[in-house]
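Thread: pyridoxal-5'-phosphate complex, take 2
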Amino acid sequence: MNDDWQDYSFDTLAVRAGQQRTHEGEHSEAIFPTSSFVFESAAQAAARFAHKEEGNIYSRFTNPTVRNFQQRLAALEQGEDCIATASGMGAIMSVCLGLLQAGDHIIASRSIFGSTVNFFTGIIAKFGVETTFVELDNIEEWQQAITKNTKLMFLETPSNPLMEMADIRQLADLAHQHDILLCVDNCFCTPALQKPLTLGADIVVHSATKYLDGQGRCIGGAVVSNHDFLHNKVLPVMRSAGPSMSPFNAWVFLKGLETLNIRMQAHCSNALRLAKWLDSKDMVEKVYHPGLPSHPQHELAKKQQANFGGLVSFELKGGREAAWKVIDSTKLMSITANLGDVKTTITHPATTTHGRLTDEQRAQANIRQGLIRLSVGLEDVVDLEADLARGLMQL
Ligand SMILES: *Cc1c(COP(=O)(O)O)cnc(C)c1O
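Output below.
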C-alpha cells in the first residue's frame, strides 16, 4: 500500500484509497475495460515482459481498475497488498494452488462454506493434498491435527449458520509455532468488523460477492496478505491459471467499499434487534447471534469484532414444518441462499446449503430441521419483524 495512506482512518480509506486519477481529471474512479495494454516501443514491450519495467501488459495479470480495488481492500484489511479474483472460490483456489503441493496437509474448521469443503475434499485432494476437519472453537483438536506436512490452517469466524467463533489470535500463535500459515475467510465480518491480519492471521480471503458488493450484483473475491506471499505464490497462479477479476466488477466492488462501514453498522443494528425480538418468542427454541449475552462466545465477539454481524439464525420448536411455514409466509424477505445483501434473505440450511450432508453429518454440525438463517438487510426492522410474525403466529 501507498505509505501516505497509513495516516488515514477506515472510513476515509474506504472512500479514497487506491485511486489514481488519469489526465482526464475524472472524479469517480475510471473503469478500464481493456484486455491488453499498448507499449511506447518494442523495447518497452520487451522490458515489461522481462519484468525489468513495472507496468500493465494484459488484464489477466493487472488492470488499473482492479488494482484500485486491490489497494483499497488491502488498506481496509491493513494488509500489505491484495490480489483480486473472479470469485470467492477463486481466491481460495489461488491460495491453495500457490502455496501447496502433493503431500501437503490442510487443517480446516468443519464449519466452513460448503464449496470450500468440496474444494478441499473433491478437487485439491486429487492432487495429493489432504485435509483434516476440526471443531472451530476446539484449540486442542487443531493442535492434535498438526502433522509435519501441515502448511495451512483455514477457518471462518463467525461460522455459518450457527455463529460459532474462533479466537484468531490463539490459532495464529499455534500456527506460527509450527511454521503453518493461518488463512481466515473474512466474508461474514468484512474489515469493517474484524481485521484478521492485525490478530496474527497470515492470509485473508474474501468473497466480494457478499458484503463488499453489498447489493448482490457481481461475483468476485480477493486474497489479502503480505507482498512476498502474494507476489511469489498467488500472482503466478493468476498469470498462468487465470481466475482474474473483471474491471467492471472491480468498479462495482470499489463503489461497495465506499459505503461498507455504514452498511455493516446498519446490518448489525437491524440483526441485533431482530435477534432480541426472536429471542422473546415462545415458538423460538434458540437464537444464534454473537450479540446476545446468551451466546457462549459473546465475550470473544466483543473483544475480537467491532460489532456482531448481520446474520441471525434461529431454531423453531416445530421442526421442518414450522420452519417452512415461517419461510413461506414471508412476503418481503427473499427466499434465497445468498447473503450479505441490502435485501434480507431467508434460508432453510438443512435442505439447501447443508442439504447434501448425511443426516449424521448434519446432526454432528447441529443443523436441525427447525433452523432458519437470516441475512438481515437494510429494510426497516419493523417491517422485517412483521414479515416473520405472519408465519410465527400460525405455529
Ligand atoms: C459465498 C462464500 C464463498 C464463495 O464465494 P463466491 O464469491 O460465491 O465464489 C466463500 N466463503 C464464504 C464464507 C462465502 O459465504
